[in-house]
Amino acid sequence: MSMIDKFSFGTITVDDQIYNNDIKIIDGTVVPDWWRKSGHTVDVEDVDDILQAKPDILVIGKGEPGHIRVTDTLKEVTASRGIKLIVENTSTAGKTFNRLCKEGRNVAGGFHVGC
Predict the structure, then answer these.
(1) Which DSSP symbol is given to 21?
(2) What is the DSSP letter of 25?
């Protein structure tokens, strides 16, 4: 399982690899350059690959100080599929993601490294 080593505004380091753009982590694999259709909004289509992987938990890092917004539709879809959705500022979300991984949980994430 991939672990987040470090986050600072504009960069995130996962397993000693530095990324300068938003990323997703699905089934332990980093998907770089995560781009959302509506920029600072996360909707179902933006995480469709994560939803197809059927994690138990989806962690969204909404940047610092947290300008990313999750749509009500995504909240409803995750709830209907039994996926726990956690939305936090990216610094906290990274720690949450790592803790859940260490607990052996089936977790996926999307992390915004900017605002």
Answers:
(1) S
(2) E
The strand pairing partners of 39, in sequence order, are none
Phi, psi (5° rounding) for residue 28? 80, 5
- Place 11 in a pLDDT band, splitting at 50, 70 and 90: very high
Residue 7: its H or E element = strand 4-8
Spatial strand order in the sheet of 17-19: 4-8, 11-14, 17-19
Per CATH, which fold does 4-111 belong to? Hypothetical Protein Mth938; Chain: A, (3.40.1230)
Length of the chain (residues): 115
The C-alpha atoms of residue 48 and residue 36 are separated, in whole angstroms, by: 11
Domain extents in the chain: 4-111
Q: What gap in Å lies between CA 52 and CA 39, rounded to an integer?
A: 22
pLDDT tens profile 96-111 = 999 999 999 999 999 9
Tell me, rounded to whole angstroms, the distance of Cα 11 from its chain centroid: 14
